[in-house]
Specification:
2 domains, Acyl_CoA_acyltransferase, eight-stranded mixed sheet, alpha+beta, transferase
Length: about 220
């Protein structure tokens, strides 16, 4: 018998899974891997990662099952990210608790904004990808972005950033709260939101805690 946590820790107690349960789960993972292999064979040879599949936010138990099945997994970093979960209806409204620069406004991303985002991160991004995600930017009166974030393909809070001169004013936290409450419904109405946080990013972890988030499991990219 193995004891693991479910994906909704606030709503369900710790559950005990039998070895048979684990076998069923691993057979489902194997079926997904087989389907991915078949799709991969249909892709052009000149693609970015020939013979491989790029996976994001891969849960550690799933990765371990893949390794046991003989799959070669090459993480981008030598550490795991922390998966933080939020109940959307429990995230505080923070917009009225911050004082914005005079004339500053909230708005979605433009292509030029996305180019700035790409210049501020080491994570490989493309403008067309960022433009396809729900986004929120805080911009000065002249249109200069000073804080921003996106909701990624899996609805997780992504690329949250505040320019150095405007930090310690609560802008990033207010922006994250506003974006999650406004944007997560586009992905479904289950009431959950998430963020993947690097273990060394103490600022982001504190922000997640302040929004009522909980570190629930680890993932790889």
């Amino acid at each position: 018998m193995a004891t693991i946590h479910t994906s909704v820790p606030e709503d369900a107690p710790t559950r005990t899974f039998t070895n048979e349960d684990k076998k069923v789960a691993e057979s489902q993972i194997a079926a997904v891997l087989d389907a991915v292999t078949q799709v991969s064979k249909q892709q052009p040879d000149n693609r970015t990662l020939p013979g491989a599949c790029l996976v994001g936010t891969l849960a550690t138990p799933t990765r371990d099952a893949m390794l046991r099945a003989g799959v070669r997994v090459t993480p981008r970093q030598d550490y795991e990210y922390e998966k933080w979960l939020f109940r959307v209806d429990e995230i505080p409204d923070l917009e009225d608790r911050v004082t914005l620069p005079e004339g500053a406004t909230w708005s979605p991303a433009t292509e030029r904004d996305c180019e700035i985002v790409i210049s501020r991160t080491e994570i490989p991004r493309q403008v067309k990808t960022l433009m396809s995600w729900p986004s929120l930017f805080l911009k000065l009166e002249d249109g200069t972005p000073i804080a921003w974030s996106f909701l990624g393909t899996d609805a997780s809070l992504s690329s949250l950033h505040c320019e150095p001169p405007y930090r310690q004013r609560g802008y990033a936290k207010a922006l994250a709260s506003k974006l999650i409450k406004r944007g997560t419904s586009e992905y479904g109405a289950d009431g959950w939101a998430s963020a993947d946080v690097a273990p060394y990013n103490t600022g982001s972890k504190k922000m997640c805690q302040s929004l009522g988030g909980r570190h629930t499991w680890n993932v790889s990219w």
